[in-house]
Task: inverse folding
């Protein structure tokens, strides 16, 4: 079977222009009003180009999320510990969940759009498949006696975009409070020798994606 044809250079440039323009609109707080017409204007390309490339708004949203997923996947598989290889398994699982909190809070507008466009899509996406496989592998190392696949689903369930958004907007939870909650879940999931007491772990502050310390990233959502 022949390989898929390589993407033309001009098509690749247009794709990146469109994604960059859409990302700017989302960053400016225009995610709910995101439309292919508006993105085409911001990218300075014809609206037909956007439609041909992404089909509809859902296609554009999932393409934006996939860009972030690829960056996150690289950090998990190749980045420095504890998120990347080289740390104790329990520390890797904890860092993985903390990093997912930062990612979910930072991308919540796009994730909400994706969820509303196609509710089941989250569970058949490449990003969820990777997250579930990674969590399953770590849990299986820590708890060989447990149903690792089920526990992975259980630990990922609180990342439902609507719940993360509710915690940020309605409950006023900061990312650090959400991370502390995950530490408490892990305290009941991990074997005693791998678990960190919730009070001790809650005082730790992991670096955010940009190298700064994540504190109240949900604050911007409380408008």
Result:
């Amino acid at each position: 079977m022949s390989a898929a044809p390589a993407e033309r250079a001009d098509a690749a440039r247009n794709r990146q222009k469109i994604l960059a323009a859409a990302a700017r609109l989302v960053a400016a707080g225009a995610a709910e009003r995101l439309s292919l017409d508006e993105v085409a204007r911001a990218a300075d390309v014809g609206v037909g180009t956007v439609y041909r490339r992404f089909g509809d708004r859902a296609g554009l949203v999932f393409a934006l999320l996939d860009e972030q997923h690829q960056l996150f996947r690289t950090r998990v598989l190749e980045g420095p510990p504890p998120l990347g290889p080289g740390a104790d398994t329990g520390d890797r699982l904890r860092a993985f969940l903390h990093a997912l909190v930062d990612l979910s809070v930072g991308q919540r507008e796009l994730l909400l759009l994706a969820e509303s466009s196609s509710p089941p899509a989250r569970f058949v996406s490449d990003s969820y498949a990777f997250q579930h496989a990674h969590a399953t592998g770590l849990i299986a190392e820590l708890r060989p006696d447990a149903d690792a696949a089920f526990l992975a689903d259980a630990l990922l369930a609180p990342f439902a975009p609507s719940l993360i958004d509710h915690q940020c907007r309605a409950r006023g939870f900061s990312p650090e409070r959400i991370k502390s909650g995950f530490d408490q879940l892990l305290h009941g999931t991990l074997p005693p020798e791998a678990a960190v007491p919730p009070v001790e772990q809650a005082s730790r502050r992991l670096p955010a994606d940009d190298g700064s310390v994540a504190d109240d990233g949900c604050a911007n959502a409380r408008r």
User: Anything to note?
Assistant: Confidence is low (pLDDT under 50) at residues 199-215. The longest helix spans residues 57-78. The two ends are 54 Å apart (CA to CA).
